[in-house]
Write a structure and sequence with these properties.
Number of helices of chain A: 12
CATH architecture of the largest domain in chain C: 2-Layer Sandwich
Largest interface: A-B, 32 and 39 residues
Order of helices and strands of chain C: EHEHEEEHHHHHEEHEEEEEEEHHH
Strand content of chain A: 25-35%
Number of strands of chain A: 17
Shape of chain A: globular
CATH class of the domain at 130-179 and 274-420 in chain A: Alpha Beta
Structural class of chain A: alpha+beta
Structural class of chain C: alpha+beta
Order of helices and strands of chain A: HEEHEEEEEHEHEHEEEHEHEHEEHEHHH
Distance between the termini of chain A: 48 Å
Helix content of chain C: 25-40%
Strand order of the largest sheet of chain C: 4-5-10-6-7
Oligomer: heterotrimer
CATH superfamily of the domain at 130-179 and 274-420 in chain A: Aldehyde oxidase/xanthine dehydrogenase, molybdopterin binding domain
Mean pLDDT of chain A: 96
CATH class of the largest domain in chain C: Alpha Beta
Helix content of chain A: 10-25%
Radius of gyration of chain C: 19 Å
Radius of gyration of chain A: 26 Å
Number of domains of chain C: 3
Strand content of chain C: 25-35%
Chain lengths: ~425, ~160, ~290
């Protein structure tokens, strides 16, 4: 078989336009007669709101101030649950929730108008600690419970297996939320074509989802919405949820003119998701030869005010909770929990990134307690070809973890005791 | 309004600007040099880097009236009519470009370095691009590309 | 931004005239690396801006008798490149080199770093350790005060509304003297000092401290001279024991000064390492 690309050095198709500075990101698109838009965002984490836009509407140059009343169709969106509002109608659930969108003929008018929109906040008790949020008596962010997902993984009998363990370590780990900080802040421009089709040009990871969500908010057929995805300045998961697409589409439809918005870095931080912060409680045990026998983990992921991909992320955290190790008895419970924190969603690794902090620390502590070097300890327990994971998946293809660990150990100058003829 | 005169990519402009216009806004919104990118507006990311009188500056931190009488080079002024600049070629060949948003600023920082120091060490390259953030590459390929560019430039001579 | 007038200053008299005319409505802009950010966040609202970045007379480092004079609009890059900022003055060079990024150093100025009154201004501790003075000029007057006297509070300097920081002066440094600098930032580039320390040192023939001046940044409302530590070290030999004791005195000083601050436990621990590093850099460069 002749391969044209694989194994060959290929220069990326958009490389030339990027080194020349000609690649068009949405902020680089200027249209004749375009208007400028800017979002007013909540400054409170949890509050009932009342909005008065009358002063803003009177500012010279302001064309319209959009709020929830101006959403023609469904005032909601979300990748799994439709728990985001396009514009908050009664209540804000986090700092940064969109409340209004000012559209004006120039940037200055937009800035001025944003400052004179009156939002009356009536604060509600807020919850920022996911452990508190899980309690029955906690204030609820949406619906009747803040626990939106509970993933259970059961294999063997951990209780019985722990009794047989020579060494057991137990610890709690916390990882923080993380911002993607892709270099190109969100930007977009929307306009209508002659046949009424709404075109939204924005850097996004899901043009096909965006099309559906824009269509539903506009209450038009999907084929009346076109999403154009120009150059994307990094995403890392942070562009999987809607940010400005629907705002722009509504504004373009109502005003009949092109509308452009460019987020500042600060607004970018407020607008998109974060990596889930997690609390991970681990108990791991092995026999005196260093063979892992049992692991029990409870993982709580803070998804903030909105679900986004929380279910998938916490499922993935649960599935990967053992790390690349064969453990015959496993019990994992992972939870996704609403709070009033910034919402969490997709970010590189998607739940698989947090758990190694915990399972690898457990491995180090076990080997220390056993007085065994950590490389040897790991090599004893890692997945190999034919291994069965805790979820029952048989690894039939290439599983070169041993090579990887040995290579790393070698490069950082650690020789496993077992290979030095030392006591294991 | 304030009258200023400046040279951008070898072309002279006489302009009337608003007093509070930043150099980046002038270059992008008025003159159409959209290769100048805004990533943070605070001089942290370096995406807005341009060369002003031979030195790199953050165009988001220079007010346009301050650039009166200056000579500016943006990414659009790096290539010649016939071909792209050896630094641009090296970025392509090495695969130092991913999302591309930092690329114009990186190339200009590299150019300012190589114009003064044709054979930099890797440490010197890292120092020269320390004001430019990249979120995709992890920088190694960018350093490789600038090393490669130094070779291309020498060969070309 | 409600800026109504902007002037690109061509000479010093013109600038002083404008300052005298517009007073509090007016701000000086040089590198703009802080000012433009403040304007963007509306933390400052001047009506008039006067740019001094291209005034020849306000740039440069030169010898003036037994002094070295650095003009107010001299950039960090110019300081790093200057031949006068030699091996003995390594601390001044390193401080200038540690500011921001190449882009920021190409624009940011010594005068701006001082007049912003930021507690974390990197260039301030070395200048304090050099016992620098500042020359302040206004339309019909000029006055020279010690740099230390210039700082009033966090972000507040003793500069009249019509005054311009014209230059900074300090005594030339002898072959048997050295100035060092050590900084703790959260990353290599673009790091705002968590804390920084500069040490001026001269040893006598028996290796005892003949002159020692210590100043730090980000450990108070502005750059501070650490006189108690200086007094302790004066006349002593610098060895593990005395350096450790000096570090403990410094810890006590900052514990007192930063009482109630959340950063205190961290800074109290970190200051020891930075202090020791500054002292050992001084000793290394003395020989």
């Amino acid at each position: 078989m002749r391969l044209n690309s694989i194994g060959k050095k290929i220069i990326r198709v958009d490389g030339l336009s990027k080194v020349k500075g000609k690649a068009l990101y949405p902020q680089d698109i200027y249209m004749e007669g375009m208007l400028y838009g800017k979002t007013l965002r909540s400054s409170r984490p949890h509050a009932y709101i009342n909005i008065d836009t009358s002063r803003a509407e009177k500012i010279d140059g302001v064309v319209k101030v959009f709020t929830y009343k101006d959403v023609p169709g469904k005032n909601c969106h979300g990748v799994l649950f439709k728990d985001h509002e396009v514009f908050c109608s009664e209540r804000v659930r986090r700092v940064g929730d969109p409340i209004a969108f000012v559209v004006a003929t120039n940037k200055k008018a937009v800035e001025e108008a944003i400052e004179v929109i009156d939002v009356n906040y009536e604060d509600i008790e807020a919850v920022f600690d996911p452990l508190e949020a899980m309690k029955e008596e906690s204030v609820k962010i949406h619906g009747n419970s803040n626990i939106i997902y509970h993933y259970k993984l059961r294999k063997g009998d951990v209780e019985e297996a722990f009794k047989r363990c020579h060494v057991i370590v137990e610890s709690e780990y916390k990882t923080p939320m993380v911002e993607h900080a892709f270099l190109q802040p969100e930007a977009g421009i929307a306009y209508t074509e002659d046949d009424g089709t709404i075109v939204v040009c924005a850097s996004t990871q899901y043009p096909h989802f965006d099309q559906i969500e824009v269509a539903e908010a506009l209450e038009v057929n999907k084929d009346k919405v076109k999403i154009i995805n120009p150059a994307v300045g990094g995403a890392f998961g942070g562009r999987e949820d809607i940010t400005l697409q629907i705002h722009l589409a509504i504004a373009a439809k109502v005003t009949g003119r092109p509308v452009k918005a460019v987020y500042s870095r600060e607004e970018s931080f407020l607008a998109h998701s974060k990596r889930h912060s997690m609390i991970m409680r681990y108990k791991t045990g092995c026999n005196k030869d260093g063979k892992l026998l049992a692991m029990e983990a409870e993982i709580i992921g803070d998804t903030g005010a909105y679900a986004s991909w929380a279910i998938n992320v916490l499922r993935k955290a649960g599935v990967h909770a053992t790390g690349p190790y064969e453990i015959p008895n496993v019990k994992v419970d992972s939870y996704a929990v609403y709070t009033n924190n910034p919402f969490a969603g997709a970010m590189r690794g998607f739940g698989a990134t947090q758990v190694p902090i915990a399972h690898e620390q457990q491995m180090d502590m076990l080997s220390e307690k056993l007085n065994m070097d950590p490389v040897t300890f790991r090599l004893k327990n890692i997945f190999k070809k034919g291994s069965k994971t805790a979820t029952g998946q048989v690894l039939e293809e290439s599983v070169p973890i041993d090579r990887c660990i040995k290579e790393v150990a070698d490069r950082i100058g650690i020789t496993p005791l077992s290979e030095r003829g030392g006591v294991v | 309004m304030k009258k200023i005169k400046l040279t951008v990519n070898k072309k002279e402009y006489m302009l009337e600007i608003k007093e509070d216009t930043r150099l980046i806004d002038l270059l992008r919104d008025v003159l159409g040099f959209t290769g100048v990118k805004e990533g943070c507006g605070e001089g942290e990311c370096g995406a807005c880097t341009v060369i002003m009188d031979g030195d790199i500056v953050n165009s988001c931190l220079v007010l346009a009236f301050q650039a009166d009488g200056k000579e500016i080079i943006t990414i659009e002024g790096v290539e010649s009519e016939e071909e792209i600049h050896p630094i641009q070629q090296a970025f392509l060949d090495v695969g130092a470009v991913q999302c591309g948003f930092c690329t114009p600023g990186m190339i200009l920082s590299a150019k300012a370095l190589l114009d003064k120091n044709p054979s930099p060490t890797r440490e010197e390259i890292r120092a020269a691009i320390s004001g430019n953030l990249c979120r995709c590459t992890g920088y190694n390929k960018i350093v490789d590309a600038i090393e490669r560019a130094a070779l291309y430039l020498k060969r070309g001579k | 931004m409600g800026i109504r007038e902007v002037y690109k200053g061509r000479n010093i008299d013109e600038v002083l005239e404008l300052l005298d005319k517009y007073r509090n409505d007016c701000r000086i802009i040089a590198g703009g690396t802080d000012l433009v950010v403040h304007l963007r966040h509306k933390r400052l609202n001047p009506k008039v801006l006067v740019d001094i970045s291209d005034i020849e007379e306000l740039h440069g480092i030169k010898k003036e008798g037994e002094f070295i004079e650095i003009k107010g609009a001299t950039t960090f890059t110019e300081i790093v490149k200057s031949n006068l900022v030699n091996k003995q003055l390594i601390g001044l060079k390193e401080a200038a080199k540690s500011v921001g990024s190449p882009q920021i150093r190409n624009r940011g100025t010594i005068g701006g770093n001082i007049c912003n009154g930021s507690p974390a201004a990197d260039i301030v501790p070395p200048l304090l350790a050099l016992d620098s003075t500042v020359l302040l000029k206004s339309k019909n007057k000029e006055r020279e005060i010690s740099l230390e006297e210039l700082f009033l509070d966090k972000g507040k300097v003793n500069l009249k509304e019509n005054e311009l920081l014209y230059s900074v002066k300090f005594k030339k440094i002898n072959k048997n003297q050295v100035l060092s600098f050590s900084k703790l930032g959260l990353r290599k580039a673009l790091a705002i000092s968590r804390l920084c320390i500069s040490v001026f040192l001269e040893l006598d023939k028996s290796k005892e401290c003949k002159r020692v001046k210590i100043a730090d940044g980000a450990l108070g409302k502005h750059g501070v001279r650490e006189r108690k530590v200086e007094e302790f070290l004066l006349g002593k030999r610098l060895n593990e024991e005395t350096i450790e004791e000096g570090a403990i005195i410094l810890q006590e000083e900052i514990s007192h000064r930063l009482q109630g601050r959340l950063s205190l436990p961290f800074k109290k621990e970190a200051v020891k390492g930075v202090f020791k590093s500054a002292i050992s850099k001084a000793l290394e460069n003395l020989h």
